[in-house]
Structure formats: structure tokens, C-alpha cells
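Progress report, Aim 2. The chain analyzed during this reporting quarter is listed below.
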Amino acid sequence: MRRLMMLALAAALGGCYTVDQVGLSNFAAQTVEPGMPMEEALVRMRTEGFACEPQAGAVVCTRQQKRVMQGPCLERVDLLRGPGKSLGRVETPPIQCKPLTLWGKGQA
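Predicted C-alpha cells for the chain:
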């Protein structure tokens, strides 16, 4: 019985999100690359679970990752426009994590 509980715990923790800025940067570099059509880059990012919104000179793609017993983290990949309708540059700002908030905390 104890062994079964340990296996269940290991399986649950195995799916935990860990903040990995280098991993996000590597993922972005492998998923989209400068020079490709912006529309193709958007399709690839959306396929990976990112929501993409156009902004001045760029498209900002974000994805929220949930963490067990901690607050969520927001991953962001900025797709900067290049010549014509191409992707010019890819930037990955720091991952932003929020602390876990408990019900009733901070409420009057």
C-alpha cells in the first residue's frame, strides 16, 4: 500500500511545472525562427497553447502554466515583425510567477 502511495505521489509531482527561462528560450528558437512568415509563426505558437495578440510592431504570445501548491506562471514570447510579413526577431522576456493566494486573504 505504501509503495502504491509513493507511486501516485511521484506521478502527481512528475507533472509539475518548473520555471525554466533557458528552456523557454530554447523552445521558442526551435518553434519559430526569424525570416519565416509571421502567419506560420502564429500558427505554431497557438498550436503550442499560446494566446497571441498584436501590438505595435510585434505580436505578444503568452501561456499560463499552473504549479502545484504555488501560484501560476506566465510565459511570454514576443514575435517582432520583420520586412514584409515575416518574423524579424524572437524575444523571451522573464517568466512572471504570481504567489499562491488563499481564499479570503487580502479581502476586507
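DSSP finds three helices and five strands in the chain. The two ends are 45 Å apart (CA to CA). These observations will guide the mutagenesis work planned for the next reporting period.
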